[in-house]
Amino acid sequence: MPHVSGAFLRSLRARFLLASVIWTGGLLALAHLLSMAVIRRHTWMMRVDTHMLMLLGVAFALAGFWQVRRGFSPFNELRERLSAVREGSERRVEGSYPSEVQPLVNELNALLDDRERMVAQALAKAGDLAHGLKTPLAVLSQEAERAESASQHEIAATMSQQVERMRRQIDYHLAHARAAVSGATPGARCSVAASVEGLVRTLERLYEHRRLSITADVSPDHSVRGRREDLDEMLGNLLDNACKWASSQVMVSSFMENGSVIVTVDDDGGGLDPAMRDVVLQRGVRADEAAPGSGFGLAIVRDLAELYGGSVVLESSPAGGVRARLRLPKGETS
Question: Are 167 and 297 spatial neighbours (Cβ–Cβ below 8 Å)?
Fold first, then answer.
């Protein structure tokens, strides 16, 4: 019985009922005050009663307003909690709510739990599929090498190109699956500097024959919401793309802007026609069909950034080539 009484007292019905009673008391007091003013009873005692009734009426009216506002406060809290879930800082809708609202919150949390399980299962299946495709792709790659050794250059080139495209397709969809899981994980964050440092070392070795200068100016305090693998995927594609087109140098830097971390990657290459900047961000499109690549790199960056609530755009670089501007939500501090 005490549990039922407590639930009723916390319900919106009880709060609005109490508010109605308080409002009614206030209105009655004010009505009585008005009636006395009409009949103009001006004795000293009645003036005292008038003042008391006026204060009482105002007090009841304010108390009623406060009670109604308090009755709506759980909805404001619920909105804030839902916003936190949407932004990824919280996994479930926490808090204590009126008895009319709590069942809805419980069902919503159950739905979020089911979604998380389904996404995890989908990621596991995607991983199994990718693992299962590795062996046949490796076999095809070996066959391409044999064809090249047998001077069947055209067949070898076609097979190698298609194997690479299939690998990039697998990476593309796996990246989507990882980002979906990470977006539902509260508190997931990673350091931009750590990711950039590792990628710069790798690319310096990879492009050592071109003697490119790759410089980084990234604050160790800058972190973004998400998993390290996805940040590496985005920055790796942008840096690799810049290295392919740079003449002698590539620069990467970061700064904060309106609660987001902005990472810029510049090269001093020949630049890109402004009409092509949005086009090359589409899946399977390359700025130069003769250049190596599958056309998925920038599309992966764009799609991953959007899954995390960010964006990527291509601009003219002060160095003369292209600037890639990647915006990602700032990582929540522990």
Answer: no
pLDDT confidence tier of residue 262, bands split at 50, 70 and 90? very high
> Residue 197: what pLDDT?
94
The pLDDT value recorded for residue 283 is 60
What is the band of 186 on the pLDDT scale with cuts at 50, 70, 90?
low
**How far is it, in rounded angstroms, from Cα 144 to Cα 162?**
10
The one-letter code for the residue type at 302 is: R
Please state whether beta strands 260-267 and 322-329 pair in parallel, antiparallel, or not at all (unpaired).
Answer: antiparallel
pLDDT over 70 at 63, yes or no: yes
CB within 8 Å of 277: residues ≥ 6 apart: 313, 314, 315
How do the domains of the chain map onto residue ranges? 2-94, 101-185, 188-334
Three-state SS string over the chain comes to CHHHHHHHHCCHHHHHHHHHHHHHHHHHHHHHHHHHHHHCCCCHHHHHHHHHHHHHHHHHHHHHHHHHHHHHHHHHHHHHHHHHHHHCCCCCCCCCCCCCCHHHHHHHHHHHHHHHHHHHHHHHHHHHHHHHHHHHHHHHHHHHHHHHHCCCHHHHHHHHHHHHHHHHHHHHHHHHHHHHHHHCCCCCEEEHHHHHHHHHHHHHHHCHHHCCEEEEECCCCCEEECCHHHHHHHHHHHHHHHHHHCCCEEEEEEEEECCEEEEEEEECCCCCCHHHCCHHHCCCCCCCCCCCCCCCHHHHHHHHHHHCCCEEEEEECCCCCEEEEEEEEECCCC
Q: At what angle do helices 102-149 and 153-183 cross, to 10 degrees?
A: 160
Closest CA to 261 of 309, 214, 299, 298: 309
Instruction: Provide the residue type at 232 as one letter.
Output: D
- What architecture is domain 188-334? 2-Layer Sandwich (3.30)
